[in-house]
Structures are given as C-alpha cells and as structure tokens.
Amino acid sequence: MNLTIAFVGVGAILALTAVSAFFSSSELAVFSVPAHRIDSLVATDAPGARALSALRDDSHRFLVTALVSNNVANIAAASVATAVFVRFGFSGGQAATGSTLVTSVFVIVFGEIAPKSYAVANAERHALRVSRIVVAVQRVLRPVLYVFEAASGVVNRFTGGESAIESYLTREEIATLVRSGEVAGALDPDEGAMIRGVLDLETTTVAAVMVPRTDVVALPDTATPADALLRAASEGVTRMPVYGENRDDVVGVVDVRDAIRADESGADLASALSEPAFVPETKPLDELFTEMRASETRMVIVVDEHGAVVGIATLEDLFEEVVGELVGRWETDAVDVVAPDAAVVRGWTTVGHLNEALGLSLPADAGVETVAGLVTRQLGRLPKEGDRVAVGEVTLAVTGATATRVTRVRVEHADENGFAVDASVGPDGGDAGSLGPE
C-alpha cells in the first residue's frame, strides 16, 4: 500500500513539475519573440501565430495566467510531497523539511532552469507551440484570472505601477535589424536608407531641412490674389508666406487654391491667408512632424533665437528627409563629371558628398557644410562668377553665382589622370544626368 502511495505521489510531483516547467518556459518564450517577428508570423499564417499575437496583445493577462498556474503547480507539488512523507510515518516537521528539499530540487532544476534554458534557445518555435494551449487554459481559468487581475490592479494603483507590459525596440536595435536585413537581402539599399531616414528624424533639427530665407518665395501683403497665382506659377510653388513691413513680419501663408477662390470672387489677398505657424530652428523633426500632422499644417515659418525668420519648412521637406536618399540626392547634390579631371556641382552640394562621389579629401568641418561655403571661406568674401580657389588636390572655379550665393562650381583635379571614381553614375547604376539649367 505504501509503495503504491509512493508511486502515485512521485507521479503527481513529476506531473506538477511538468506543469510548472510548461508555464515557466512559456512565459520566457512568448516575451522573447520580438513584436515585429510576431507580425511577420501572423502575416505568413504560421501555426500558432495568431494565438501568440493574442497573448502579447494582452500581455498582463498572459503573465497572470503563467504566474498563477506556475505557483499553483509548485504549491501542489510541495503539498503532495508533504503528504507522502507523513504517510510514511515522518513527523510534521520532518515531513515539511523533506518535502521542501525534494520539491525545491525538482522545481528549481526541472521546473525552472531546464525549461527556461530550452525556451531561450528555441524561443520562437516554443512560443508558437505552446501559445494555443495557454489560450485554452486562459478560457478555462477566466473567473480565477479575473480575481487576480483585479487584485493586481488595486496594488498597481497604490504603487504607481502599470498593468500593461510593452516590448520596445531601441533605435540601435532597429538599426541593427536594418543592417542584418540588407546583408541577408531582405531589404534593398533604398529601403534601408528610408528606414534610417525615419530614425534620424529624432536627432535632426528643422534647420537641417528648411528652405533658407534667401531661397524663400514670399509675397508682400500688398499683392493681389492674381499676383500670388502668377508668382506661384513662375516659381513652381503651391504655398508662400506673406509679409508686412519686412520679411521678418510674416502675417500669413497663402495656398494657391485659396488664392484661386479669392481671385474668382474678387476678394483681396488677406481673405486667402491662413495663420502662420512659427517654430524654432532647433526643433527636432520628429516633434515637428507630429505637430504638423495634428494641426494639419503644411508649412511652418522657421525663426532663430532672436525671432528673425531664417527659412520655411513644409511637410514635403520632412518627407524628403526620409526618402531624400532615394529621389532627392541626385537632383540637389548631383556631381556631373564632364572630363576625366573635371566635374560640375551645385553650390549647395555638401562637401561630404563631393568627397564621397569623387574620392577627394576636402576639409569638411562644423563651420563649412557646402561647396559654396568652402569657396566663401577660402576667399574671405562673397564669391562671384570667375573666382577660383585651390583647395587640396583640386581647384574650385565659380561658374555660376548671384549677388548673394554660389549656384554652380567647376571642380578641376590637379592630376591629369582625374578623379578616383566616376561620379556620373547614380545610386541605381544609371546615369546621374546633367545638372540642367539653373
């Protein structure tokens, strides 16, 4: 009889330890699968993926399920062990000590360490395998789980804790995933560049993407709606700031659609203006993007610390910051090789891009970002057409300029063998094309 009881007791302890192992490993496996991977599994309709997604969507309930089931199994195993020891004639104290030793070994080794080690090594596969079982257990234990969830909610209110359990990827983790995807061929370079552009929104300020004041197309408040339409058509813009006494006195923004309605109705330009939105040039792009979407603003006026207007920024500028490596770079930073030892660039081409495109080592420090800025610093004055400066291994010749800015520069290499690379090839392997007219 005692032998039968011993066998039954050991069997019960083993079964309860298995239950403990199941929920211990399930908890670790489910929370170890990245959220983006779960979405991918659901998209491919992998077996168990929808159940796994459901567990992660209600992570608090899943955690309560795992903890309750795990602890009930452990307590039950200890109780069975105590009963077996008592049945074999041990005193209460001896039975408690013996059961503690036995269940501790089983629970720690076989109910925690071993299953969790397995779950770490096989997180995704194990999570998919156990998720449907856990969902079924949740349905059975729903009344019990409700009690524990309510109790934990009360405790959370007193302690300031949160019931929800979220899983976040850091910027570095996302960047690593992008690099891995490019190496594996899952992402092409253009897609990787776009994702990196999104990540850079947090660390890039509006000053980096704004249209500078010298390039802003603006109207005086004395203009008519017809004037606005003619100016918009000639400059190729759809919105323009309107100023009063001077360009720092921006009184509104006109949209060509509003100007058309005002012109057709015979109203003045003031009736077509929308309230201008002002932002500091130091505002991060991610914050600006959120604010512009929330307020449905298409254009903002950028001001410096003294309140002077330094430029404008539009939603299109923010989008180009994300996709600029795809469609914008070769339009604005084009490097057109016209001879083995000569190339033509726009004045606003960055020195870094020029170095990369032509294999040069021109100085690019914090004070100078563009080719025009480099020429200006070397001359010590505003450049004019015909100016030439020698910088490192090249000569920079100004071939296009206005009264206030350099528009075109010819880069001539001192070595007749020319540049180290052919910059006429664009990012997709095709011809980058001519710079075209100013």
Describe this structure in words.
This protein is an alpha+beta fold and 438 residues long. It has helices at 2-32, 35-43, 49-57, 59-87, 92-121, 123-140, 142-159, 171-184, 189-200, 225-235, 256-265, 285-295, 315-327, 329-332, 351-358, 371-379; strands at residues 211-212, 219-220, 239-243, 250-255, 273-274, 278-280, 299-303, 309-314, 335-339, 342-346, 388-391, 394-401, 406-413. The chain has 4 domains: 2-159, no CATH class; 172-200; 206-324, CBS-domain; 331-413, Uridine Diphospho-n-acetylenolpyruvylglucosamine Reductase, domain 3 (2-Layer Sandwich). It has a 5-stranded antiparallel sheet with strand order 9-10-13-12-11, with helices on one face. Strands 1-8-7-6 form a 4-stranded mixed sheet. It has a 4-stranded mixed sheet with strand order 2-3-4-5. β7 and β8 (309-314) form a beta hairpin. α1 (2-32) packs antiparallel against α4, α2 packs antiparallel against α3 (49-57) and α9 (189-200) packs antiparallel against α13 (315-327). The longest helix is centred in the first third of the chain and has 31 residues, at 2-32. It is elongated, with a radius of gyration of 34 Å. 28% of the residues are buried.
